[in-house]
Design brief:
The complex is a heterodimer of chains A (about 190) and B (about 110). By secondary structure, chain A is mainly β. Chain A has no helices and 12 strands. Chain B is mostly helical. Classes of the chains: A mainly beta (about 190), B mainly alpha (about 110). Strand 2 of chain A pairs antiparallel with strand 1 of chain B.
């Protein structure tokens, strides 16, 4: 049974800083008296298999999250980690985060440069690139279902782009297979 | 399982294609790329494995050569043993035609 000691009450109000004992187990969505910031729902997708492409920018299969905000004023905190690599010799591997068909969390297009969310930078075919980690607070302004997803590819350079594996991906114990994820938290606005 | 994407690119270097989970049933052909049959893709696996093995062999060979490059500078005198060692490294890919042959390669001992 949960127990909160009642001597945490000051002369005017409950003083949460001196609460002791076992706090009750409650959902953050059940909190009252909090005007914003509550986590209302969490959706997550973890991709543990591989994806490869030679295309410019395409959807990364199996790495999407659907979420339906309960209010148009709520925000979505998108947390993601992508693991993988690119073909070292000839290509650059880029990724772009999307909400439905809209690129989000991207740099500004400047002259010939395009706006992306991150890139892989393997220096060897048998070594994975450093992870691409991202956190983005989105304001979708909708109560319809939305889809967060990643696109990846080599953006016009010939060669391979790899998720959750190295370029070589040799069948031996020195080679790693990895996981990637997207986690979406609906935050009360 | 060999690499489906690399096998496809060996047949058509300009192919725009995605492969999920190394699964023939999850191949997506993009930008009008003409699909290639499973049999034709699988027929390239041996060549793809050989290419990968050779690439790794060359990378290791190049690293070993680089470690002794400073001995071959014009203001250094390269010993005969070192000349032989470096030549054997350069020649190490000669005559290799299969992955098994590449895997069986033994590197010369550094003097």
């Amino acid at each position: 049974m949960s127990l909160i000691k009642t001597n945490a009450r000051s002369s005017s109000a409950l003083d949460a800083t001196i609460l002791t004992g076992n706090l009750p187990s409650i959902s953050g969505a059940s909190l009252t008296g909090v005007s914003a910031g509550k986590v209302l729902q969490v959706q997550q997708t973890v991709k543990t298999d591989t994806f490869t492409t030679s295309s410019s920018m395409v959807d990364i299969t199996g790495l999407t999250v659907n979420i339906t905000p309960s209010s148009s004023s709520n925000k979505i905190l998108v947390l993601s980690t992508l693991n993988g690599s690119q073909e070292v010799a000839v290509t650059r591997g880029y990724v772009i985060m999307y909400r439905d068909s809209t690129p989000i969390f991207v740099g500004t297009n400047t002259s010939s440069r395009f706006g992306g969310s991150g890139s892989f930078s393997s220096v060897s075919g048998s070594i994975a690139s450093p992870s691409i980690s991202s956190s983005f607070l989105d304001t979708p302004n909708t109560t319809s279902q939305i889809t967060y997803k990643w696109q990846g590819g080599n953006k016009g350079n010939p060669g391979g782009f790899y998720i959750n594996r190295t370029e070589d991906d040799g069948n031996d114990a020195t080679q790693i297979r990895m996981a990637s994820s997207i986690t979406c938290l609906e935050i009360e606005g | 399982m060999s690499d489906i994407l690399k096998a496809i690119l060996k047949i058509n270097p300009d192919a725009k294609v995605s492969v999920n989970n190394e699964d023939f049933d999850q191949i997506q052909w993009h930008d009008g790329t003409t699909p290639i049959s499973k049999d034709d893709i699988q027929a390239q696996f041996t060549a793809v494995d050989f290419d990968t093995a050779m690439k790794n062999l060359r990378a290791k060979r190049n690293k070993l050569l680089a470690e002794t490059d400073h001995l071959a500078l014009s203001d250094q005198t390269l010993s005969d043993d070192m000349k032989t060692y470096r030549q054997e490294l350069r020649d190490i890919t000669n005559g290799l035609t299969t992955k098994d042959e590449v895997d069986a390669v033994t590197f010369p001992t550094k003097p």
